[in-house]
Amino acid sequence: MKILNLYAGIGGNRKLWGDEHEITAVENNKEIAKIYQDFFPKDKIVVGDAHQFLLEHYKEFDFIWSSPPCPSHSRINTMLVNGRGFKAKFPDMKLYEEIIFLKAYFKGKWIVENVRSFYNPLIEPQERGRHFYWSNFKIGDLGKSKKVRNDKGSLLNIKMKDRKMIVIDFHNYKGDKRTIINNCVEPDVGLLIFNMAFKKQQ
């Protein structure tokens, strides 16, 4: 299959998909894109605007995963604005533009992931854990995530599976690791949703 991974980050959602598919990832931060490329050297990485890339290239893919930026929708953001005097900003409506666009025009399987919003969602999502999901397939139980630390002491949000910890280790890279990890979809969740899209059993 040809897969498009939008707002790819370091590829937490993609980590367990394997290498048998042709995957294109779009990330606008060059440093984060480099981490992704080091993790997944067989993927094609595009440094650029994921929103525009979707508009121009959606017909080329069989499966699309989109995780648009979440801070302007987050409940935490409103607490920071109201409690700590952070500057308020409009919610980024590209989230809903992409949902509407994919519903109307994309023929393959698709999913848009974001945090639970501080407002009632404008399009009804499927709610799982701390996240909202919009898709053209049903998402089942995703299990529970557990916070652990890797051997380098970085706090990771990951899922336990068969008593094994799936760790994303990027201690050699510079930058705000906590933000990168917080924006990272747990690998097991990414695999579960991928399999649900194509009705595969784990």
In short:
This protein has 202 residues and is an alpha/beta fold.
What does it look like?
By secondary structure, the chain is an alpha/beta fold. It has helices at residues 30-39, 50-57, 75-84, 94-105, 177-182, 187-197; strands at 2-6, 22-27, 44-47, 63-66, 109-115, 126-128, 131-135, 146-149, 155-158, 160-161, 164-165. The longest helix is centred in the middle third of the chain and has 12 residues, at 94-105. The protein starts with a strand and ends in a 5-residue tail after the last helix. 33% of the residues are buried.
Biggest sheet strand line-up: 3-2-1-4-5-7-6
General shape: globular
Mean pLDDT: 83
Overall domain count: 1
**Which percent band covers the strand fraction?**
15-25%
Largest sheet, in brief, is: 7 strands, mixed
Q: Any idea what the radius of gyration is? A: 16 Å
Helix content: 25-40%
CATH fold description: Rossmann fold
Label the CATH architecture: 3-Layer(aba) Sandwich
Q: Which CATH class?
A: Alpha Beta
